[in-house]
Amino acid sequence: MTKENITYLLWSDLVGVTRTRGVPTSDLESKVETGLGWACAGQALTAFGSIVENTWGPMDEVRQIPDLSSAFSYKSAVTGAEWSAVICDSKSAPDRDWDCCPRTFYKRALDALYAETGLTIAASFEHEFLLTADSPVPSGFSLGAALRGNEFLQACCAALRNAGVVPETLEPEYGASQYEISCAPKIGVAAADAALIARELIRAVAADFGMHASFTPKPSPKAVGNGAHIHFSLVDADHKNVTHDPSAPLGLSPVAAYFSAGILNHLDALIAITAPTPVSYYRLRPHAWSCGFKTIGVQNREAALRVTPSASPDAARRAKGYNVEYRPADACASPYLTLGALVLAGLDGIRNKTALPRPIDCDPADLSKEQLAELGITALPSSLENALAALHADEGAKSWFSPSLFDIYNRLKKWECEQAYANDEATLFKRYSTAY
Ligand code: GLU
Ligand code: MG
Known about the structure:
Bound molecules: glutamic acid, magnesium ion
Mean pLDDT: 95
CATH class of the largest domain: Alpha Beta
Shape: globular
Number of strands: 17
Number of domains: 2
Strand content: 15-25%
CATH topology of the largest domain: Creatine Kinase, Chain A, domain 2
Number of helices: 15
CATH architecture of the largest domain: 2-Layer Sandwich
Largest sheet: 10 strands, mixed
Structural class: alpha+beta
Oligomer: single chain
Distance between the termini: 33 Å
Radius of gyration: 21 Å
């Protein structure tokens, strides 16, 4: 059989699905300037095949313009099958940004941060997922669970490294058949590109082994959740980490403290972007190992922001790796919208010199209502509807989005809320497990 390599042009849409059009690899160069056409109404696609009502007509089109710096390829360790891919910016014209492109949303956020502070962010994702196959399930975190997935994990390790995404840990997680692969941080737009690439490669490797990797935030109401925690740090133009100040509270430099405070200040609205489905809210609860409260603490897993100092005795190494973990995120969100919104919230904190609340070094669930009120700690939104209402009520957060982007995002998410009521719980969870 003769085969010819295809390069898939990829873009992450508003519901966190990677969409594509393919071209013969030999034609890729010719697409760099003008890209490939794509209907604007495609941005109204849900993860379930339907298209929500929108304002685009049948002739409205954008160009998918490949960014060659993001190109990667895959060769299956199982079947030998090969493919290549490249991530695109969706543009109204080759030289004109489209305000509904998530990658452009993130790039503009990075540009604003850099213009005002001379800084950018480094970020990495912890990818948790459920690996389904038909064999007995060993206990969470056990060597048995690791070895059951050993060849799969090894193939993921090679595929990620080959694609320029550096795997750092590959392991069984707590849940039955749950695994986690965490990758090294990347700077700027490459951080979101790396998240897209990692998720798609993990899916591809699983499929090669005849298995299914699902990143759904909650496989079933009582199952252990899949998070997509994000570790971020602020770095200067020379890529020096400027997040740490050993003498300051939480070890955070003033600029990192303001940035983190901005995120906490807009947290309820942010969650509508970073935990974007009805099932996401079954994960965001106290004592679910995800996080349940709007607060910050060192190593506190119940806090939405967790400062994770390195254990290294070497001060320079500690400063280099200093980062903050944002926990209320899952993989149903586009990594571009997620990081873009985090950057804009953080920038708002820097602009306004927003003060951090008092850090929490205990389980907030153990505090009385009065203590929580005094510390300004609230529970996270309990549903997508509540998070969307918080987004609508937060004028600052609303201003991050163009009117068309805000409109279509809300249409998509309202449709998902309606679906949650139209389906019984079991059907709803199954649909998200299959789609993500
Ligand atoms: N699975 C947990 C979540 O849903 C995270 C566990 C951990 O701390 O890695 O966020
Ligand atoms: Mg984990």
